[in-house]
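Re: your question about Malonate decarboxylase subunit epsilon

S., sorry for the slow reply, the queue was backed up all week. Below is exactly what I fed in.
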Amino acid sequence: MAALAIVCPGQGAQHPEMFALALQSVAAAEWLDAYSVAAGIDVVAMARNGHGSDLFSNRNGQLLVCAAAVANWVALSTMVPQPMLFAGYSAGEMAAYGCAGAWTAETLARIVSQRAACMDAAAPCDGGLMAVKGLRRDETAALCDEYALAEAIIVADDHAIIGGRRGDLVAAAHKLERRGIWHQLLDVAVPSHTPLMRDAVAPFRAAVLASSLQVPAVPVLAGIDGMPTMTTDTIADTLAAQLAQPVDWLACMQSAAERGARIVLEVGTGKNLAKMFAECEEIDGIDSRSCDDFRSLEGIAAWINARCE
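Result:
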């Protein structure tokens, strides 16, 4: 039987119909109701009616992407085999723990809100992130040193997200433009996963430990190193550390492959993680898709179950 891994995306792909699949399930709709009450925001209505900053502000974005990922998994979980592991990209790591059963809907909504509040309190007013593709790891490190920036997310040996102050990112972008290196300034005001966020680490760690956290029966990979977390202290340590040090998504993909994953489903919204698995040169033999590739829960389940036979 092929082994299934569930991965949860971060922010960036929110859209009005991001809950359409989950709402095909009564259980997922009830989960969303409980989550929304605890969050103080009707996440389904926000997605449908929100515009611009409503969907992409730090707090709203995190609440939306975590809700979509977990609700999709609630809808699918009785239709497919049990996964061998969960993993999440950036804010999606919170959703991964939600999928794995570490928190109830109500607790997840509250802890995601606390995460956003800790980050907003720590973030400089002029922070940002930029995607860069086409530089080796040592070249990316040199660029960061030159412009007082830092690696935020490691995607591949030649693909990274870097972060820092907006003026420094713009200066680095000009240099990359002159060299013909692909780059894109992201519509993000918080320099997540960089040392500029160090003041968020301690208060968020305390918030995680104070929550009704349960160690999941199915492993969740830590975003900072791709290793499974097995205790409440390790979960709190790694989730908090992630705010101010790089997410090593490449290590997470390699770890999933090394542990035997052969089917990867990206729950939530967007297709970036499924694409990353498909394009990762360091791994092979993995079939990856996103929920956004399908129009029905039954279609997703049929795809997974056919490969698990």
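Residues 214 and 289 are 29 Å apart (CA to CA). The domain at 3-122+195-308 is CATH 3.40.366.10 (Malonyl-Coenzyme A Acyl Carrier Protein; domain 2).

Happy to talk it through on Thursday.
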